[in-house]
């Protein structure tokens, strides 16, 4: 058995993130600048003045609605429960939903952000169209990723509106380039695998998806630009680790501590790379008049006012990579783990793909995708068990908000839907604990009218992995095609299995995130593809 020593001996940024989280979750942050040789009094005065200038206003206090239960509070009180949420949110959400959420009830889950109010579907319908300044999507994101320091989160509408319109209208037009990039990225990332070869596929998929996404963002000028591709990957990882470190630092110290954190410092380097690579590309297009079908060009053409500044477009393009790469790379990772754990699904999926491609002359057309309902179903079932986010539709209610039945959500309440727990509800999903890879395919065949509600990219009250309402993920249709194209390539070109004795590796809970395991390996062997 061979092993991929060149790459697997260099753990990726995400592995670092996971190892860091495991190791440091209880460690206080060390501040090297504290051990200075300045006189203690001078030091104290200096520190106090800087803190006075930099300390943010105190965050407003949350008011809990009486009679709504708070789950998971045990002997250690609310403080211990909030800490527990960091690594046990999945269990706490399942407990809350089973006890109180099932019949449209509400509950709070304690978390470091405060007690989050889990709301029932009837309120989601009403809140999905509430004014954005009252039910704030971006504020939650900024809080979650310490956006004030990491820059994660953006109130720009340039990228959501461009993804929603131009990208979604061109989904099939971008596919040939996506397919070509998948072939190149696999060739670059996966060794020959003539015999079974142990690979860390979680890392490989991050690299592959980063290249494929970059191809859609700006063609080969981006997908073959290694510095850009690595920055798109590390921008997210640095933001994620930086945010986790900051969360363990007292609020009043964050303005200073953030300046000394290597991850936060690296974020500005990623912006430098984005500007260095993207601005000349945009200027070149001005000169030649070239209008390629890619996101960068569509954003350039959609931009208005301050958005037309190429610095702005470059920064936003980097932020799109945060939304697109680790999210989409998680899916094939979870899928290969599921297929290794349940190899009985491999041949039926392969057969379906071969048949669909045969009927479409070997091309991944829109029709070809429609002829792969089992693959779509398997992807959705895999996401039901291992979604990237355990809570979605996260919003901050900024002012007291009274709903049509008279219930008032107090100002400064973080709301959300316990999406994963909802998909484990037996009234919505029969036998929910059973992994049934083709359940959505059967549902679609029995009820063709409701079929669109059962597809991977669907967003409805029973299926909110991509969120819901005006901020529902606009990239989900592209993600669905991209992940399918990767799985088609994988299933046609490789056999795969777990090393002897290895079980399906569990996902890692980090607050509301449920991350694919980056420590496991998969044995890969090349096969002769039919197409
Ligand atoms: C499997 C992959 C993906 C998952 C699981 C995912 C998930 C999500 C979720 C849960 C939201 C928030 C929705 C809400 O709260 O209602 C979101 C928003 C967003 N996603 Fe995705 N996403 C994925 C891929 C992508 C891709 C490939 C792109 C870009 C091409 C993208 C672009 C965005 C943007 C721009 C937003 C913000 C929408 C807004 O501000 O209104 N996502 N995504």
UniProtKB/TrEMBL annotation:
CDD domains: CYP503A1-like (cd11041). Belongs to the cytochrome P450 family. SUPFAM superfamilies: Cytochrome P450. The chain crosses the membrane at residues 31-54. This is Putative cytochrome P450. The keyword Transmembrane helix applies. GO terms for molecular function: heme binding; iron ion binding; monooxygenase activity; oxidoreductase activity, acting on paired donors, with incorporation or reduction of molecular oxygen. Keywords: Heme, Iron, Membrane, Metal-binding, Monooxygenase, Oxidoreductase, Transmembrane, Transmembrane helix. Heme binds at residue 473. The lineage of its organism: Eukaryota, Fungi, Dikarya, Ascomycota, Pezizomycotina. The keyword Protease does not apply. Its cofactor is heme. PANTHER family: CYTOCHROME P450 (PTHR46206), CYTOCHROME P450 MONOOXYGENASE AN1598-RELATED (PTHR46206:SF6). It comes from the Eukaryota.
């Amino acid at each position: 058995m061979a092993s991929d020593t060149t790459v697997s001996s260099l753990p990726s940024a995400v592995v670092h993130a996971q190892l860091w989280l495991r190791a440091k979750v209880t460690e206080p942050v060390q501040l090297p600048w504290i051990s200075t040789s300045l006189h203690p009094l001078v030091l104290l005065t200096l520190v106090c003045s800087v803190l006075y200038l930099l300390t943010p206003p105190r965050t407003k206090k949350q008011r809990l609605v009486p009679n709504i239960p708070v789950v998971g509070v045990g002997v250690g009180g609310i403080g211990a429960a909030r800490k527990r949420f960091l690594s046990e949110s999945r269990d706490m959400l399942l407990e809350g939903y089973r006890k109180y959420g099932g019949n449209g009830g509400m509950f709070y889950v304690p978390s470091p952000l405060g007690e989050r109010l889990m709301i029932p579907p009837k309120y989601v319908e009403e809140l999905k169209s509430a004014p954005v300044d009252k039910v704030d999507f971006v504020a939650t994101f900024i809080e979650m990723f310490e956006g004030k320091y990491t820059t994660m989160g953006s109130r720009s509408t340039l990228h959501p509106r461009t993804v929603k319109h131009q990208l979604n209208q061109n989904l099939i037009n971008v596919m040939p380039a996506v397919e070509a990039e998948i072939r190149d990225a696999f060739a670059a990332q996966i060794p020959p695998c003539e015999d079974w070869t142990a690979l860390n596929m979680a890392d490989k998929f991050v690299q592959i998806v980063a290249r494929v996404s970059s191809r859609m963002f700006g063609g080969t000028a981006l997908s073959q630009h290694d510095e850009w591709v690595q920055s798109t990957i590390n921008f997210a990882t640095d933001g994620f680790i930086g945010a986790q470190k900051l969360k363990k630092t007292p609020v009043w110290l964050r303005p200073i501590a953030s300046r000394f954190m290597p991850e936060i410092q690296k974020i500005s380097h990623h912006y430098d790379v984005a500007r260095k690579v993207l601005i000349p590309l945009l200027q070149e297009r001005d000169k030649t008049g070239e209008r390629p079908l890619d996101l960068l060009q569509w954003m350039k053409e959609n931009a208005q006012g301050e958005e037309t500044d190429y610095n702005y477009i470059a920064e936003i393009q980097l932020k799109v990579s945060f939304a697109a790469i680790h999210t989409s790379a998680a899916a094939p990772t979870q899928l290969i783990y599921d297929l290794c754990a349940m190899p009985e699904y491999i041949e039926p999926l392969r057969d379906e793909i071969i048949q669909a491609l045969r009927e479409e002359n070997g091309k991944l057309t829109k029709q070809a995708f429609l002829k792969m309902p089992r693959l779509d179903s398997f992807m959705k079932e895999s996401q039901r068990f291992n979604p990237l986010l355990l809570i979605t539709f996260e919003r901050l209610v900024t002012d007291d908000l009274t709903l049509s039945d008279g219930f008032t959500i107090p100002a400064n309440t973080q709301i959300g839907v316990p999406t994963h727990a909802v998909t484990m509800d037996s009234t919505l999903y029969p036998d929910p604990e059973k992994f049934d890879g083709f359940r959505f395919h059967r549902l679609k065949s029995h009820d063709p009218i409701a079929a669109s509600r059962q597809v991977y990219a669907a967003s409805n009250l029973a299926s909110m992995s991509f969120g819901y309402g005006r901020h529902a993920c606009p990239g989900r249709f592209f993600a669905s095609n991209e992940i399918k194209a990767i799985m088609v390539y994988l299933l046609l070109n490789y056999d795969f299995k777990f090393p002897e004795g290895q079980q399906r590796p569990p996902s890692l809970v980090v607050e509301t995130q449920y991350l694919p395991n980056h420590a496991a390996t998969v044995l890969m062997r090349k096969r002769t593809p039919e197409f």
